[in-house]
Amino acid sequence: ETDSEDMNSEKYVTTLDEAALNHCREFLNEKEESRDEAVALIRKWLTDQNHLNARTDSLNLVRFLRGGKFNFERTIGKIESFYKLRQNTPEWYGNRDPMLPELQDLLNLGVFLPIPKRDAEGRVVVLIRAAVHKPKIHKQNDVFKLGNMTIEYEVENDESISVYGVIAIIDLNGVTLGHARQMTPSIIKKAVHSWQDCYPLRIKGLHFINAPTHVNVVLSIFRQFMTTKLKSR
């Protein structure tokens, strides 16, 4: 068998504990008896979507199904949005070597800090220190590139993130006008679109802290592009 045939025939094997599986049943419409069939339907749909160049392994498809609460249309919409975002945003998804000097700089500054311990509801908490980089040196697109790499690493290494979701705490302490100018409406729109519509996980909370008054304009632009549900979180 070829690698692609192996990938198309392999079965999903969970790494979740019973509490997480119960959460999937209760809140994500996931049923063990029909999960494989749902994966097969998505995989069959993907055979006609060669333009997406999508992964078809079972775990990845189960993540997207959870992101769409096992609704076929919502799931394929999220998959399509995710892979189109990757294709159309080379400034975020091209040349993702973490050893690049510009990414090493941001890593050493600690812009994105996933907290090792999950919160009381099992969610991963990510502290985003939005003002530790220097706008004259670091590109905002590199900041978002590293942020996406960070969350993808977390998703790949902990299946429960696709179940319980993510809390983002965005610390704006020290934000300058230079930082604010980097956040153009087009970048903000793209960022919110990626959070809401693309990734196979849920943003369960966005908390902005230590926000000076001069970034209120930027925050209001963020809110313009958010769904009512995300605004409420």
From TrEMBL:
InterPro entries: CRAL-TRIO_dom (IPR001251), CRAL-TRIO_dom_sf (IPR036865), CRAL/TRIO_N_dom_sf (IPR036273)
Top-level taxon of the source organism: Eukaryota
Listed GO MF terms: phosphatidylinositol bisphosphate binding
Limits of the CRAL-TRIO domain: 100-233
One GO CC annotation: membrane
Pfam families for this protein: CRAL_TRIO
Name of the protein: CRAL-TRIO domain-containing protein
Organism: Laodelphax striatellus (Small brown planthopper)
Lineage: Eukaryota, Metazoa, Ecdysozoa, Arthropoda, Hexapoda
